[in-house]
From TrEMBL:
Protein name per Swiss-Prot or TrEMBL: Amino acid adenylation
Amino acid sequence: FDFSVWEIWGALLHGGRLLIVPQLISRSPEDCYNLLC
């Protein structure tokens, strides 16, 4: 495992959320903003 796995689990265990953004949305700043807000 990479250290990033521990970072993800640490955040999830303390109330964080993991959001997997579709590729098309990640290419558009406006769409990315709309997804997060």
